[in-house]
Structure prediction request, 221 residues.
Amino acid sequence: MRSRILYDLAGEDPELRFSSYCWRARMALRHKGLEFETIPWRYSDKEAIAFSGQGYVPVLVDGETVVFDSWTIADYLEREYPDAPSLFGGAAGQAVTRFVNEFVNAVVNPGIARLIVSDIPPLLHEKDRAYFRASREQHFGKPLEEVTANRDAEVIGFRQLLDPVRRVLANQAFLGGTSPLYADYILFGSLQWARCVSPSFELLAKDDALLGWWEQVSGVR
Ligand SMILES: N[C@@H](CCC(=O)N[C@@H](CS)C(=O)NCC(=O)O)C(=O)O
Prediction:
């Protein structure tokens, strides 16, 4: 049987897997019904994935094939395992899913980061903390605690960003239609990230219809 390994971002607790992009790859593998092992990876373990020619996870090693970048991994799995359930529902579905991918990357993930980024350093392995703080503070141009200081007010605007998704899910069970597809896993990965990192922060209001959708997607295979 082909060995399949996913390098997956972890916190100090190796069981804490919080990367939204790694969640996409994990859910795509599950959807395809493929067995895989994960290797907990930390930001400072660049050497461990140097064989992939870059320094970001997820990295999938499928037998002899090395694939990195969550979208490229989904595309690879769809082509390599055409007889397993489709992630996109065909070429047109894949094309439309690209929009979901870019929307979540450009709008949803930065929106979440501004609300939860200060919760991340204490969860990281000690060897990762200084790197994470320095690189993210450079990105935001201020201390991480200042970035999230007003989050209880700012989360309201974030929730509104997801209104188009709520409207779609008022008419169909999943973004993929009657069952979850990769488009669902993209958004799911982002909500998983927040849930893993900031379990007590209410990213979504308690009565948000998206919570029911989240629960159903999390039950995939
Ligand atoms: N475009 C990539 C982004 C992957 C990415 O940003 N991964 C983060 C973890 S969430 C990472 O490996 N960061 C390493 C670093 O910041 O040094 C994808 O979709 O997979």
Q: What stands out?
A: The longest strand covers residues 4-9. The longest helix spans residues 91-116. The beta strands are 4-9, 37-41, 59-62, 65-68.
